[in-house]
């Protein structure tokens, strides 16, 4: 092994994942482990602070290894954006949706991953810049950041909030962790599915497209393929193509929502009535009610705003991909 690797391990990782890491490390040859350093997060935002410190100190001489879920990866990516410090992601969270794009849906063998980190191929990937504004047009920096996987507004954000509440209520239950999103989705579509917003998109061709509805079920803005524990809003998305895949869903009836949810989960929804798919480079989502603040999430982290602007940032950071993956 030639490079040095600094692991950022989420303090929120479940004990089973941490035990798996401990077991895998015990099987890794000692000469390999000498290239590893471990840092554990202690507070919200700490993963980003650690990543920034590493990048400023070592630049491209080390590789950061994120051991956490999509929220941890989001923190790290925001600190490593536009630096020459590479990142490798190992799935340790509840959904691990970005990892599904990197590795496929099969969880990688942890011991083999640790032994073969040098074989990961660095590649520049895109990020999505998300900026939030209040009703007066003031920029809201606390709710503006880079997104590496998926940003969404509408029903799916409410589903995710309900799923996170389930996990918080029973944090030790692996069953709850694995089923929370699906169960929350089935419950939520029975209630108020619509959100008061419209959207305007700059398409890959340079043309502008403006949605005509004043209410919609959801809009997902995708760099990766998966979110919400395996739902697939953008089956054709690539992390390094300079394009944002957008999926917008009209305000649909309960019956149609029930029929669409399985297709949406498995990426079979495109072309169905009420579903609109776009290849874009930027866009704006605007609340159609001045008193209504939109709730969204980027990589699973909640944010708010009356108007939300997003834009692709090509080649914004360096990500390591395992051999055999052609993302």
Give the number of domains: 2
What's the number of helices? 9
CATH architecture of the largest domain: Sandwich
Total number of β-strand segments? 15
Structural class of the secondary structure composition? Answer: alpha+beta
Q: Report the C-alpha radius of gyration, rounded.
A: 20 Å
Strand content: 25-35%
The shape, in one word, is globular
CATH class of the largest domain: Mainly Beta
Q: How would you spell out the order of helices and strands?
A: EHHEHEHEHHEEEHHEEEEHEEEE
Q: Alpha-carbon distance between the termini?
A: 25 Å
Summarize the amount of helix as a percent range.
25-40%
The CATH topology name of the largest domain reads Tumour Suppressor Smad4
Q: Spans with pLDDT under 50 lasting ≥5 residues?
A: none
**Overall pLDDT score:** 90
Largest sheet: 11 strands, antiparallel
Describe the overall structure:
With 327 residues, the chain is α+β, with helices and mostly antiparallel strands. The chain has 2 domains: 4-119, Probable inorganic polyphosphate/atp-NAD kinase, domain 1 (Rossmann fold, 3-Layer(aba) Sandwich); 127-316, Tumour Suppressor Smad4, CATH 2.60.200. The chain has 9 helices and 15 strands. It has helices at 15-27, 30-33, 46-58, 70-80, 97-103, 110-115, 155-169, 174-188, 254-265, and strands at 4-9, 36-40, 62-68, 87-91, 121-133, 145-147, 150-154, 197-203, 208-210, 216-222, 244-250, 275-287, 294-298, 301-305, 307-321. The strands form 2 sheets. Strands 5, 6, 7, 8, 9, 10, 11, 12, 13, 14 and 15 form an 11-stranded antiparallel beta sheet that branches. A 4-stranded parallel beta sheet has the order 2-1-3-4, with helices on one face. α4 links the parallel β3 (62-68) and β4 (87-91). α3 (46-58) packs parallel to α4 and α7 packs antiparallel against α8. It is globular, with a radius of gyration of 20 Å. It starts with a strand and ends in a 6-residue tail after the last strand. 43% of the residues are buried.
């Amino acid at each position: 092994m030639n490079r040095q690797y600094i692991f950022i391990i989420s303090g929120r990782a479940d004990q089973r994942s941490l035990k798996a890491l401990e077991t895998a490390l015990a099987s890794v040859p000692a000469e390999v482990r000498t290239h590893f350093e471990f840092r554990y997060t202690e507070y919200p935002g700490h993963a980003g602070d650690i990543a920034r410190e590493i990048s400023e100190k070592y630049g491209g001489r080390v590789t950061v290894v994120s051991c956490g879920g999509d929220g941890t990866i989001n923190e790290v990516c925001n600190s490593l954006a536009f630096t020459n410090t590479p990142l490798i992601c190992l799935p340790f969270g509840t959904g691990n949706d970005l990892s599904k794009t990197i590795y496929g849906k099969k969880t990688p063998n942890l011991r083999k991953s640790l032994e073969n980190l040098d074989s990961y191929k660095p590649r520049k990937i895109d990020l999505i810049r998300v900026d939030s504004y209040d009703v007066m047009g003031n920029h809201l920096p606390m709710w503006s950041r880079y997104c590496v996987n998926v940003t969404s507004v509408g029903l799916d954000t409410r589903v995710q909030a309900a799923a996170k509440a389930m996990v918080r209520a029973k944090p030790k239950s692996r069953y709850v962790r694995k089923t929370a999103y699906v169960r929350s989705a089935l419950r939520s579509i029975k209630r108020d599915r619509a959100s008061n917003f419209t959207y305007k998109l700059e398409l890959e061709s340079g043309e502008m497209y403006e949605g005509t509805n004043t209410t919609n079920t959801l809009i997902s803005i995708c760099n990766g393929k998966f979110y919400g524990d395996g739902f697939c809003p953008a089956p054709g998305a690539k992390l390094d193509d300079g394009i944002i895949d957008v999926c917008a869903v009209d305000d649909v009836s309960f019956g149609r929502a029930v029929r669409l949810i399985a297709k949406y989960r498995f990426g079979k929804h495109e072309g169905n009535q009420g579903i609109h798919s776009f290849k874009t480079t930027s866009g704006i989502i605007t609340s159609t009610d001045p008193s209504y603040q939109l709730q969204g999430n980027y990589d699973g982290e909640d944010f708010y705003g009356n108007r939300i602007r997003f834009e692709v940032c090509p080649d914004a950071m360096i990500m390591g991909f395992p051999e055999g993956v052609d993302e």
